[in-house]
Amino acid sequence: MNNTLPPVEIPQPAPRSSRPEIMAEEIIERLTYRIGKDAKVAKPHDWLTAAILVVRDRIIDKWMESTRKVYRTGDKRVYYLSLEFLIGRLMRDAVSNMELLSEIKDALASLGVDIDVIAGLEPDAALGNGGLGRLAACFMESMATVDIPAYGYGIRYVHGLFRQQMADGWQVELPENWLAHGNPWEFERRESSYEIGFGGSVESVGGYDDPPRFVWKPAERFIAMAYDTPIVGWRGKRVNTLRLWSAQPIDPILLDAFNAGDHIGALRESNKAETLTRVLYPADANPAGQELRLRQEYFFSSASLQDILRRHLQQYPDFTNLHEKVSIQLNDTHPAISIAELIRLLCDVHGMDFDLAWDVTRQTFSYTNHTLLPEALESWPVPLFERLLPRHMQIIYAINTKILLDARKEKKFGDSQIRAISLIDEGGDRRVRMGNLAFVGSHSINGVSALHTDLMKETVFADLHSLYPNRINNKTNGITPRRWLMQCNPGLTNLLREAIGPEFEDNTEALRALDSFADDSAFQQKFAEVKRQNKVQLANLVAGRMGIRIDPSAMFDIQIKRIHEYKRQLLNIVEAVALYDQIRSHPELDWVPRVKFFAGKAAPSYHNAKLIIKLANDVARVINNDPAVRGLLKVVFIPNYNVSLAEVMVPAADLSEQISTAGMEASGTGNMKFGLNGALTIGTLDGANVEMRDHVGEENIVIFGMTADEVARVRSEGHNPRAIIEQSRELAQALQAISSGVFSPDDRSRFTALIDGIYNHDWFMVAGDFDAYAKAQRDVDQIWADPVSWYGKTIRNTARMGWFSSDRTIRQYASEIWRA
């Protein structure tokens, strides 16, 4: 007797209505049955969750159809591996891209709820630090927008980086509890769980005549559990998946130990697991921090690859066609261990020959480099690597053997070139070079701006480029105009629609039509009014959070980015001190009122970066409270920079500070966001500033300072900053004031070492570029004094920034790297 049930055709639910009255009914239903609240006693956060659940239902319809489509067509999938995804708040992003903003707004209003109030309660997902993570978020949205099937893979950090507070001007790091009350956007996928191992030993098994097969027996094992968040493309065309991994113990509690009275020891496995995914970028100045960071990188890389291979086997019999159906993009070196892990999985778990596995791996992976700083190209001590990942160390040695033998025999590389391309750095303590591993294990290595890509070939990867001359290519970064124009700057978006029509919403290159309005006085007046409204919003935020009053008619001069010496917040602060001296010394001159804004976080172990934050706050305290300045200059450091804060600051900027030492910034994306929102850029010819100058026109950007070639030449020939300082009266006085304690009367030597660094070596060319920077700032003052000229330039910035859309970048990745 056959007990097999016949297949059942499972009916699909009808798509949800977008009518406001239907959505209002559903909001009440979610409030009642999912949250357990009566509308009469519901709090704003209850309404937010209910509204998200209603919007989420409509996203799911598109999400499931997007998934079914890939299985029907067999389209190639793209997998984007990144340790960071700085996605920010999702409510407005989702409803805007689903074209439901007016409907959900009306639905909530009919219930007496203001969408602006509840949307502001949504926490920022603490999944990133700065530009790299925000780029990953823009790319995920653009992949959905241009209809590329994609998964983003990362870590579901409980606390992420940290929440920044100020204590007497010093940065204080506190946990960012963004998950404290749950995350209504995510779905737990318990079926997508994978075992991750560390340590242990490797054994060779098999007969005498058989190829050896290796079995890794880890000493520690954890479970990676998947959590999915839907990522909506523009107009809901496609919904892709951001899959984040959370670590769980295999045995959550050791009952024998607990019952024996060792209550802490009984939970040690749970504590180890929780540590893995608790904090982004644990301080790696000590061995324990280094080990945790390596564990994190392997944890999410292994889980992601196991997931990718499982999905591939659902459709195909083996992995010989993996590279034809899968493209894996490594976002920087953090997931570079994936190269060795894929070979381990293919060979040790699925029985593939090593040479074939190596060939499939190289054709599957591509690698994006984001830095020219050698110290930022991760490397790990060989003993640590071998202890945590013994099988991977064997694989890396095997790869290295293939690469070095080929270089020596086929390309006739000499000893110095062999040392440069080796996966093992033999200088000093032996270390595994993750940048070199990512390079040799990928078929494509891309830079993120034209200048950065050229410099990669000449500096950090010069010898690898010589070995593989066709692998390096450029893909200049971009930003999603949905979030960084339409959502964060609705006033400007409406003005653009009124002037040039809505075509730019689907093709940002259409913004070029705005050029014809750049000198139109009526349009300039409307453009200026939008900018003023955005500045009032920022001024109100600062007044509410910090108690500082700001005049919106002053020039808003903004530098927001990670605090790092090469980004040169210090140059900006020193110039502020010099300007402060000039305003006091020459009160008879017609000074331009200016507010210098700073925001950004310093790595907890980066002493000089934290000292720069303290200096900014100390300088602000003195300048802002000096009546002699007459309000002509203010300095404001806004704590806890994140995406939501950027969404207020970017539209309010008059002047965008992009002043990194030339040759050290890979690209930048803040420069693009500011330009798109009608700010004038002051910057060096670094990163994407070079291409921005070419697109907006050199007359519509203020460029100063040494070029990358000049910086390299000055460093090699010998830089004498002391002589430069002695010849610059303004610079010498400003440095002396800071160093002597004018801004730190409670500790007069607080900044002495920081300033001595400028006098003695000035690696980041603060002294070298100061006079050029100060002159450029006075040039900016002259442009500001002529509103017709100012708005003509800033309108042209908005008009000519369309090329810097992440949609364009993703299309280039898809056609030239992924073949998707």
TrEMBL record:
Its cofactor is pyridoxal 5'-phosphate. The modification N6-(pyridoxal phosphate)lysine is found at residue 673. Its main location: cytoplasm. One of its GO terms (molecular function) is glycogen phosphorylase activity. One of its GO terms (biological process) is glycogen catabolic process. It catalyses: [(1->4)-alpha-D-glucosyl](n) + phosphate = [(1->4)-alpha-D-glucosyl](n-1) + alpha-D-glucose 1-phosphate. It is found in: Cytoplasm. Belongs to the glycogen phosphorylase family. NCBIfam families: P_ylase. This is Alpha-1,4 glucan phosphorylase.
